[in-house]
Amino acid sequence: MHYFPRAGYGWPQSAGCVEMPNKAAHQVFRAIHYGTVVTVATPGHVAQAS
To answer: How much is the pTM?
Structure first.
């Protein structure tokens, strides 16, 4: 998960990275810590904890 400048986000564009706008990357890294498990899901979809 990292910042990467793109014309747009929200669809597959990389070889496996989760790329996001700079502001979103700062918000995510303030909210989670190294090793935190994350789930990438369709907007509006709420993933259930297992």
So the answer is: 0.57
